[in-house]
Amino acid sequence: QVQLVESGGGSVQAGGSLRLSCAASGRALDRYDMAWFRQAPGKERELVAVASWNIVRKHYADSMKGRVTISRDNARNTVYLQMNSLKPEDTAVYYCAARPAVHFTAGQAEYSYWGQGTQVTVSS
């Protein structure tokens, strides 16, 4: 079992930045692909970014390319999401997710472990 706890959310003005963290416990993350998803009010949960277990492969949602960076520190069992130039439409609950590294995928149905989420609110 992998337990995931997100932190770093908050309220920022448009154009601002936030760095989200996802701390894992229970298992070492160095054999897990990690991803960030988000869910805005009234909308379905969607992908933000995903990184392979060895950080060699990354994938970003088109809506956030150039504005977010996913990184990970396997020694600290932590994954990060740096978000810049935030927009009001980025307001959502952001979730960290993990899956054993078998094949690289951004499909959320493939992710077995989820955190509780952290709220990001961007005001105009």
Characteristic key phrases:
four-stranded antiparallel β-sheet; globular; mainly beta; seven-stranded mixed β-sheet; 124 residues; 11 strands
Radius of gyration: 13 Å
Topology, number of strands: 11
Helix and strand content put the structural class at mainly beta
Q: Beta-strand level of the residues, as a percent range?
A: over 45%
Uncertain residue segments: none
* Number of helices, where a helix is a run of at least 4 consecutive DSSP H or I residues: 0
Main sheet specs: 7 strands, mixed
The outline comes out as globular
Alpha carbon gap, first and last residue:
40 Å
Global mean pLDDT: 95
Q: What is the chain-wise order of helices and strands?
A: EEEEEEEEEEE
Question: How much helicity do the residues have?
Answer: under 10%
Can you walk me through this structure?
By secondary structure, this protein is an all-beta fold. Helix content is 0%, strand content 51%. The strands form 2 sheets. Strands 2, 4, 5, 6, 9, 10 and 11 form a 7-stranded mixed sheet that branches. The termini are far apart. The model has no long low-confidence stretch (mean pLDDT 95).
How would the blueprint of this fold be written?
Elements: E1 3-7, E2 10-13, E3 18-25, E4 32-39, E5 46-51, E6 58-60, E7 68-73, E8 78-83, E9 92-100, E10 113-114, E11 118-123
Question: How would you concisely characterize the structure shown here?
Answer:
By secondary structure, the protein is mainly β. The chain is built from no helices and 11 strands. A hairpin with a 6-residue loop joins β5 (46-51) and β6 (58-60).
